[in-house]
Amino acid sequence: MSAADQVQLENFSSIFSLEGKVAVVTGGSRGLGLHAASGLLQAGCSKVYITSRKPSACETAVSALNALPTKRPGAQAISIPADSSSLTEIERLVTEVSKTTDHIDILFANAGATWGETFEKFPESGFGKVMDLNVKSVFFTIQKFFPLLSAAATRDDPSRVIITGSVAGITLGSLGENATFSYSASKAAVLHMAKNLAIELGPRHVLVNAIAPGLYPSKMANGLIELQGGVKDLEEASPNKRLGKPEDIAGLVVFLASRAASHLNGSVITTDGGSHLKGKM
Q: Which domain CATH number covers 27?
């Protein structure tokens, strides 16, 4: 074999392409989910199903996505509102998706919530709500979508599950007056669950990986950003001197969904500019 043959990579021009793939994005009407959905659609997905609790938010998101001038001809974002905290709603979501596709290739399990309160006053209801949505509902979303995920998956073209964790599940989350005890615990749990599911589902041609974002400006994170000094202070404290941008999350999700990441399974990728290495969000 010549040196030229040894360095030639098979079909490298399409290694990041998602041409014709079908994706589902939970928590996809805003923030990280919407950024990821935009990336998936522009990378070639033929269908991207957007779901979140509020129908109006889903419709607004889908309208914006379908107006993207860079998506593939015929590609579409589809709104199916559902409350991911309810098992019945998750089952209904799968049924609705099944009406317009016989398989999905990518599931971005991104729905989540947080709760901030002091240790002494932290309510049982808040703890339970966060754990249920951030951990239990992620598991059952993957479980109920598994028949569609495995329908067209093969060893050489596996389906992908990408779970949104957080660096708060790796290092310390917010403490003090707005402590996020349940959020941090839930994100540690869901990252570990991703590793377990990777071993369980990998042999069945469904790869499971997780991302661990730091602070990205979003509706859920903006309050915490202000409590920690605001964008400028956090940017100055970050090793790369900025917070996350939409393309950072979109690019990472597209990578994990693409052929380029077909040998990643059970990985947790942080995306916070290195801030977690300093021991805090």
A: 3.40.50.720
